[in-house]
Amino acid sequence: MIEPSSSPQDAFQAGTPAQKRALSYSNTIHQLFISVMNEKLPADRIVGEYFRINKKHGSKDRRVIRESLFALFRWWGWLKKVHTSEQQDATWFACLSLVAELEAHKWPQFSEAWREFANQSAEFSLSQASQILTSVSDRCEYLNQQFSHLSFNDAELLPEWFWTVSQVNDADKQAVIEAMCSRPPIWGRAQTLTQEQLIASLASKDIVAIASEFFDDAVSLGHKSINLNAIDAYQRGELEIQDLGSQVIGQICAPKADEQWWDTCSGAGGKTLQLRSLMLRQDSSASGEIVSSDIRRKPLEELLKRAKRAGFNGITTAPWKSDDLPVKASSFDGVLVDAPCSCTGTWRRNPDMRWLDEASVVTDKHALQLDILTRSAKAVKSQGQLVYATCSLSPIENEQVVNAFLAENSEFELQTLTHPFTGEQTQLLTIWPHEADTDGMFVAKMKKR
Ligand SMILES: C[S@@+](CC[C@H](N)C(=O)[O-])C[C@H]1O[C@@H](n2cnc3c(N)ncnc32)[C@H](O)[C@@H]1O
């Protein structure tokens, strides 16, 4: 539930219509910001619920509110030094004006109004950025110029614990920061159509899609938010939304058209659908099958709806309710374990999570991940494949889980993989967000001897 925050109207004089509107936006953004921070719930969820209840906001209002809020989280590692209270005070307005500058938002009348409110306090004399800021370093320099009594550096845009649990090479650190402070495009995957057919179909509805250079079924849909339900190709299951990093997992699984696969942690089936699509691309009457399991029932229902939308047969669900295998042991050509994890690799899309979570989110799932992997491995048949994946960027959830598993299960051996974006050969593959403008992922593939 969102509590109304204290109104700034009394303290700050709004004369012009733009200033009045800027105050009203500030009020809403502040309510949402406090609500996310205090309730520790994802901003996406809080904002979605707020707009569902408050229908008064038009599409422009929603854009200003949403983008300002997400930008606050993206740059919070710096802004928390500026705004140290929970009030809508001058420091709050300074932050609103700063994020509009940092992300070159296209509402100068509101960012100007926020700057004027901030500058009503003797504490500030903020000025507009003299040019569009494109890199994190440019932005850092701008902030350092604005505040002589504070100092800012790039690494603090991610929580300190992230650097401890992630082991980023020094050479990659700046690129990782840049990626983590920008948004990836919306990535889609062509299902039941070729990439070219999908691009043409979307173009006929004025939606620009660009073919990925890496996979022949992947497309980038750019950065603008899309109403999927208004897109025929989506309604017909010809297009699925799936991050390109996530698509790497299905490509590494590389299921053959006649194979039996078990997706043990399928959720709502992003990867199940990809596996089936990859089978059908080889043979339109592929005899292969996929069994999808999850501890939660609801996502499995959603998965079946998505499969129906695409007209896919060959997918069944088997809820996983106890320690016992929900499928037959030693019977699958391939088993995919897309394990529950900290999701640090998805922080580009959910910048709030880096400030809501703590290091324990990375360290506390190792035993569960190892347990799910160990139990899932029992379903792999001789010469079959076992694929372990997460959307975490930490070796604790990735390499350490795989190594602990291999230490106890000598019948499995790691396969060498080719990194699809860099061409590097490796057995333990981390997809870093900066390599191809994606979420971060990890994958390892093992063969049962
Ligand atoms: C990373 S998500 C899966 C995402 C999904 N594969 C996709 O591509 O959309 C991890 C899933 O593991 C499930 N899960 C958590 N604990 C589990 C367990 N003990 N057994 C099976 N599934 C579990 C969660 O419900 C969640 O849906």
TrEMBL record:
Ligand binding (S-adenosyl-L-methionine): 294, 338
Residue span, SAM-dependent MTase RsmB/NOP-type domain: 174-449
Keyword vocabulary terms for this entry: Methyltransferase, RNA-binding, S-adenosyl-L-methionine, Transferase
Signal peptide (UniProt feature, chain positions): none
Molecular function, one GO term: RNA binding
Superkingdom: Bacteria
SUPFAM superfamilies tied to this protein: S-adenosyl-L-methionine-dependent methyltransferases
Keyword DNA repair: no
A biological process from GO: rRNA base methylation
GO cellular component, one term: cytosol
Active site: 391
A Pfam family the protein falls into: Methyltr_RsmB-F
UniProt family annotation: Belongs to the class I-like SAM-binding methyltransferase superfamily. RsmB/NOP family.
Name by which UniProt lists this protein: Fmu (Sun) domain protein
Native source organism of the sequence: Shewanella pealeana (strain ATCC 700345 / ANG-SQ1)
